[in-house]
Amino acid sequence: MDTKALLAKELAGIIGMEAQEIENMFETPPNREMGDIALPCFKLARVLRKAPPAIAAELAQKLSLPEAVREARAEGGYLNFFLDGNKRVRTVLEAVAAKNEAYGSSDKGAGKTICIDYSSINIAKRCHIGHLSTTAIGNALYKIYSFLGYECVGINHLGDWGTQFGKLICAYKLWSNRESIEKGGIDALVELYVRFNNEADEEMENQARAWFKKIEDDDAEAMEIFNWFKDITLRDVSRIYDLLGIKFDSYNGESFYKDKWQSVVAELKEKELLVPSEGAQVVMLEDYNMPPCILLKNDGASVYATRDIAAAMYRKKTYDFHKCLYVVAYQQNLHFRQFIKVIELMGYDWAKDLIHVPFGMVSFEGQTLSTRKGNIVYLDELLERAIVKAGEIIDQKNPELPDKETVARQVGVGAVLFYDLYNSRIKDVDFWWDRALAFEGETGPYVQYTHARACSVLAKSGVSATDALNNADCDYSALDNSEAQEVIALLEGFPQAVDAACEKNEPCVVLRHTVALAQAFNRFYFEHRIITEDGNATNANLKLCAAVKTVIKTGLSLAGIEAPNKM
Predict the structure, then answer these.
(1) pLDDT of 224-276, one tens digit each?
(2) Are strands 151-155 and 113-117 parallel, antiparallel or unpaired?
(3) Are 442 and 423 in contact (CB under 8 A)?
(4) pLDDT, tens digit, 9 for 90 and up, residues 329-372
(5) Which distant-in-sequence residues (6+ apart) come within 8 Å of 113 by Cβ?
(6) Helix %, strand %, coil % of the chain (to 5)
(7) Whole domain around residue 209: which residue ranges?
(8) Roughly what angle, to the nearest 10 degrees, separates helices 52-62 and 3-15?
(9) 542 within a domain of the structure (yes/no)
């Protein structure tokens, strides 16, 4: 527990408030002469019915100070805390040393399962840049929750149901063969589907419906072709997932629930929630300021909501999840509100554990993307171009760098992920090459370069990061300067940043903290000599350097980004 958390816990017992609420009130004074941490007491006046200066003075008298806090001083309506620099430095650096790259992890999620539904690709279609956010955010949340001890289940809820698959099989039977499809892969399937939509007459449409009916009925030939198309799609997308370092625990998509939604409909009827409306079957939600949730079309076919309810039921029964997250764009807000409300009306209290994690739209260099208009950027091409561009920059900056291909991949892929994840997920993302791949500013390459810089300092000293962290012969007074203290404060706050990212389902919290740490370390690096004539002072500097390297690597890894040792 960091110093702020310890102070908040002590204050909570005196004031009678939640510790987290108090911790959120803390501020950083404008200069160190006024203290290291400040508690404004103005908001407490209403709770304690006293003037803020009186509250500050009373708290200063009653408070039992944690070891790293030297003094608590009431100044007007503020309670200012002055930290013991050496004790704080030792405490923080030893905490990093004790857990190394696990620093910031915990077992708070032990025994709890988190299902995360993300990426959710469509069968027989190529992944485009629009799939970037769901894939990046979902993967980051998987890593963050796992880091905090939760058992995570990554689910790629495939879009593999609907009449389009009847059309695709019909087109295949009319115009193609197995050899051509195997050779052409996903692009051959896309071409077939486009051709069908351009050339189909009434007879072909009837054939397509007949093929989809065969899929529904588990016809052997139809299912063999259908599953083959799925395999081709998954082989294609696996190249992207391999680049991103992503694996899924389940690929159960819409077709998996083709024989499971019927029980949902039966239960809704039994509970008298399903009513007819213009030929369809719906659950009325007008009391909740929502339009009706359609469960069956007028021909008796299921819809997305029917299958999503069936999927939620299956996941609860199979995994008994603590939470089930759906990383899906904000355009689907109403859909999630509707089907989650239906589950609640069915009497399942775990409906509250179904959480939509929405995100904004992605555009490319100022242009809105549209498949229909042919203005699309495919995700594999985006990543490959990023790797090429990163390689070109590395060739300019460090042409003698060993294993440039690996570093280019780490930097290129990392730049794309970082650019997508750095801001609040609900914000729209406009992807620009020059911004994403810049080595200055709040970018992935900047943070990766800072990590490489810390590695370089350690390499120059001849001391490994592990040895530097575990070295007890340190003169911590060498770190009694504003630059080092800022670094220490950010190292200390890293576990809270991870917790906050988890609580808010916001990976950007970790990345923003990691950027702040990189910036603070660079200020320290430029203002102070790290390797000096004083051995124990050097050891303290190297310990700080190793801690920064370790925590930056962890911060990046929680976003699915690698940290090169050299750049």
Answers:
(1) 999 999 999 999 999 999 999 999 999 999 999 999 999 999 999 999 999 99
(2) parallel
(3) no
(4) 999 999 999 999 999 999 999 999 999 999 998 888 777 655 54
(5) 150, 151, 152, 153, 319, 320, 321, 322
(6) 60, 10, 30
(7) 162-237
(8) 110
(9) no
